[in-house]
Amino acid sequence: MRLFKAVWRVSVEEFFIYRATSFFTFFLAAIFFVVELLAGHIFFAASGSVNGWDGQSYQLLIATVSSVVYLYNIFFIVGHENLSEDILEGNLDYTLIRPVSSYWFTSMAQIDVPSIFNFVISLVVVGVSLKQLSFTAVGVVLYVFAALLAFGLFFILNKAVVTVTFWVDGFTALGGIMEDSIDLLSRPAGIFPRILRFIFMFIVPVLLVTNLPVLSLKLTVSSYWHFAYIVLFEVVLYLLSRWLWNKGIRRYFSAN
Amino acid sequence: MKYLLIGVNSFSSRLAYRSNEITKLATNIARMLVSIWMWRFLYNNQSSIGGYSIENMTKYLIITNLAAIIFSTSPIFRLSSQIRTGALNNLLYRPISIFGEGLATFLGGQIIYIIVLLVFLVAQLISKSPFQMLLLVVYMLACVMMFFTFMMLLGSLSFWLINVWPLRSAVNAAYLLLGGLYFPLSFLGSKYTFLLSLNPFSLVSDVPARLLLGQSGESITTYLAVVVGWIIVFILLYRVVIRKGIARFEGVGV
Known about the structure:
The complex is a heterodimer of chains A (256) and B (254). By secondary structure, chain A is mostly helical.
């Protein structure tokens, strides 16, 4: 906890030192979110309601996924962005000699303060979208739980992908794979061909966690066992990612 | 000659790091497929939306997304990395232009995609006159120059910014919206389509797609004049920004 407070203090200080950059970061990230919302408006203005999806549900899906991604960015984006470089350049030494969990420290080495503002904006859009839809209290509880599960999955998958740098050298596009995948899979599951839907709902369940919050608001029966599946999946994946990390740091060497 | 060598090196390095190339290509193709699937889902038995049949919408999305592969944002992040790490010193010591070196690297890395896109676009005009084909090739080559200069201009902001990774989101967002990667630009409101289409992102992807599908009210020569205008503006701005940037560059990396 003391370590987290120190990380927080340093990140906030850096945010104020680089005010212009921080504002720029916040502003540019917000543009992407606005474009996604606008695209949703255009899609459904042209076609109305299709297969259970309308403009409001789609807006909620986009805003929810954005909130989760910004929450992930707040805590982990800077750590994961730097991790590949640190592994390749031998800068991990400074982390490994500290008496802390290297798995968590490399992920949470810095807080991305501008993402906090983006997170708040996306939460406001979530609130506006929810006001336009009808739901129950149980639905909202399940919605929040589903969003937290999405947050957990994004973290573990990103960590596992970055850890691959211990074995693969020069594969710089690796870092963007998860970001692009989440972006592409933030769509109603029904648009995808059946085989891809199966893969991304159950084998790499990114599509499942992006759709689950909206589905859980509607309290569909299938969403309950989806919850059970994703909880189990995340526990197994977390253990796997810890194992991969431990294998990776044993393989790591540097002449730093 | 030195720039030709840089271009050849860049081409070779792209071939050496095939996994990066395949990943980027796969991401672009996936983006295109998701856009097409989204629209097929939305058409839901409608014959036409916004004046586009489902076939024309599919063709439009294929052209705009193919163009997005060539008109890459990589020069921003390459220049940014050179500034951030201090590697720009290697260029400043030598009798070599930062712009020329960047252009040679960009063209060398993208040459295969440029040829594929040009062949694909010209093939769509097979029944038209050779002059029209030539005009399209000239237009697309001018677009390559314009877009590269624009990316270098954005990349040179790294002299002042610590992180440029959010730029990736912003440029991608501009591409998605204005470049027509999600939907035709005309869907934003027909009254402003022409004015909107004059931005760099639309000129490189939405405009060629609409020209080929016969959905454009303006001729290719009008758009070519606009592209040339942008090249002049971006080069002038780039010269000012890079001069000021180098003046404050300490060369030690951040």
